[in-house]
Each structure stands twice: as C-alpha cells, then as structure tokens.
Design goal:
This protein is mainly alpha-helical. It has helices at residues 6-22, 24-33, 39-67, 73-87, 103-117, 119-129, 133-160, 165-181, 187-190, 195-228. The relative contact order is 0.17.
C-alpha cells in the first residue's frame, strides 16, 4: 500500500475534513444528552455513548462499503453526497435533543441520534476511502476525538470563519463525482474518456457548484437580514 501517493494523501485529507464538518453535530448531541446527569455519570455517559456511536458508525461504513459494490448504488451515493454538501450552507439550527435523566437513557439517546445523524458521515468516509479499509479505519479513529471534542472546536471555527463550511461542501462535491465515476454501470462508457478529463472533472464540478452555493447562500442571508430589520 502506497500511502504517499497523491490519491492517498487526498483520501486522508478528505476523510479528516468530512469528519470535521459532519461529526460536529454528533458531538453536540452527546453533550446535550448527558447534560443533566451528575458529573461522575456524565463522563461515563460521554465515554460509552461515544464508544457506541463509533461502533454504530463502523457498522454503517462497513454496510455502505459493501453496498457500493452493487451496480447503481455508487451513483445513488454520489447524488446523496451532493445533496449533503449542498445543504451544509443552508441548514437551520438542529432540532433540540432533550437531555436525559438517567445513564442508560443518555446512552440510548446518543447511540440512536448518531445512528440517524451519522449516515452522511459514514457515506462520506466510505466514498473518500474508496473501499480501502486502512483509510476507513483511519477515518473512524479520527472520528473519536472529533466526536468527543468536536462540538466546541467546529462551532468556534465556523463562528470565526463562517465560510469554512464551503470547504466541507467543496470536498463532498469532489468526492461525490469521484464516486460516480467509479460506478460499474459507467465502466464501458468511460473507458474511452481521456484520463485527464476523468481526473479534473471532480474538481471542476466542485469549484462550479461551490461558487453557485456561495452566491446563493450570500443572497439568502441578505434577504433574511432585510426581513429581520
């Protein structure tokens, strides 16, 4: 396994950025779910809740990686990643997660919420890793500190540099096209396409869609400011 190739470096960077952008919400859920517990139970709930969340994510990535071998599902996954990347710049505040009163209710809240919210993260990791289990395991290991400490870190980054969200969108857009281009249904069609075109098309697509997303987001924010004034 050549870890220093351009593709390998890109895969690792993509996984890290996807984790940073998409796993922060899961960290927020963990903090909110354990908020009402006594201090000695709160730490245990965060630890075991995170452990359960990572286990659920590992299972999700494994299932998604297996499913991507089925013809047609890379196309579906690629389109889903475009939608996930697009909504990053337009999402409203997340629905409130109620704090739990007992240790086990906190654990169940964390695991269930992560199972629902972690699908996009698992899909992004699986797509960026392209079936390479070393990268998948690396992505999941990176998820652990991101989920534990990511809530405050990601929120501070986005508060100071709101446009950082477009970096995450750019990565997801590029990964989505790379995923679609590896779709078995297109194999015979793309075999005659120039390699240079296949290499550059994900980046061109990501640049164009991110620019459109940036413009539309700024326009939406201006309209919102005018309404609130």
């Amino acid at each position: 396994m050549e870890f220093m190739t351009i593709d390998a470096v890109w895969a690792v960077l993509a996984i890290i950025l996807i984790d940073l952008v998409l796993a922060g919400d899961n960290a927020l859920v963990i903090g909110m779910a354990a908020n009402r517990l006594p201090p000695h139970l709160r730490k245990k709930a965060i630890f075991w809740g995170t452990f359960g969340a990572i286990a659920i994510r590992f299972i999700s990535v494994a299932i998604i990686t297996y499913l991507m071998m089925i013809p047609g599902l890379r196309l579906v996954g690629g389109i889903a990643l475009v939608w996930i990347g697009w909504k990053l710049a337009f999402q409203e505040n997340h629905e409130e997660v109620k704090a739990a009163d007992t240790f086990w209710s906190a654990i169940s809240t964390i695991v269930i919420a992560d199972a629902v919210m972690g699908v996009d993260n698992a899909l992004g990791i699986a797509a960026a890793a392209n079936g390479n289990w070393w990268f998948i395991i690396m992505g999941l290991l990176i998820s652990i500190p991101v989920v534990i400490f990511g809530s405050s870190m990601v929120s501070k980054i986005l508060d100071r540099w709101p446009n950082a969200v477009f970096v995450g969108g750019f990565v997801l857009f590029a990964v989505s096209v790379q995923m679609i281009l590896k779709e078995p249904l297109f194999e015979s069609t793309l075999v005659n396409v120039d390699t240079w075109v296949l290499k550059t098309s994900p980046w061109i697509f990501a640049i164009v869609v991110t620019w459109i997303q940036f413009k539309m987001s700024k326009k939406a924010n201006k309209q919102l400011e005018q309404v609130t004034i």
